[in-house]
Structure prediction request, 317 residues.
Amino acid sequence: MDTQHPSAPSRAHTRLADNKPPNQPPNRQSRSGPGGGLVHDHTRHTARFTVIGNHLAQHPELSLLAIGLATHIQSLPKGARVDIKTLTARFKEGATRIAAALRELEEQGYLRRERVRVPGGRIITRTTSCNQPGHSRSHDHDHDHDHDHSHSHVEDEPVRPAHAPRKNPEQKPPRKPLPAVPQPALRSPTLLQTATDLLADLRRTDPRLLLSACDTAHLAPGVAAWLERDLTPTAVRHALTGDLPNEPLRRPAAFLAHRLTAQLPPLPPFRAPAPPPLAQYEVTNCDGCERGFRGPRGSRCRDCREAAARGFRAETR
Prediction:
């Protein structure tokens, strides 16, 4: 009873954590040797957990992205969306890498995707996640519903035809063409040049109306149609630049094309050409009788012309 044991602890070690047994040091070294190998610090889950088999977690052929994606899919509830668009919005990886990982899981049997026609006639894609490839749910009816071997996820998206080309996410959509503009009755080079100069000068009125050469060539016939309707370039410029919106113009050429079409004035009314003015002569003297009359210089008055005509007729008889 009087013998002392200096190696025995004087008191019990304080428990460091709820999940560690008493008298366990905080940093237990692995059996492989001091400072080497993996050390697990496990805590038993009691809620919100998913059982993942080592055949998936340590799969020799699947990529790390495919293993992580399969783990995420198996943790989702039934009916969750697992299409590429949803997964791309959820994770940092792009659509190409996620699509490749899904194909890996399909090849190894962890995913099954089939096309199903719903009662409304629309075709959808049904994705089935299998936590044990090769095992069917019919073999495991004794398991609880929360531990089923497969979960079905219905993706409410239309199926793309096999022959349809895939869209490149980096390809920008084509630019929408400009609206049509009125065309002049006569495409005079001088009139088109005047219209082009007017459009090129609009940026001096408002910097937002800076147009490219292609847009100017498209709008020039519309301005020419205005000019041939007896409008001055100043009037056309005022019609195009008046009452502009305060917000930035996203497509100034489309805005001007709309104004050229929507505010096109009518043709001027037809007016008969005025008759030429009567000639006004100064008073001059007749070469025959020296009387004054209005007429061209060096001519005769009416009386002398009539007398000369009577004498000519008498001589011819």
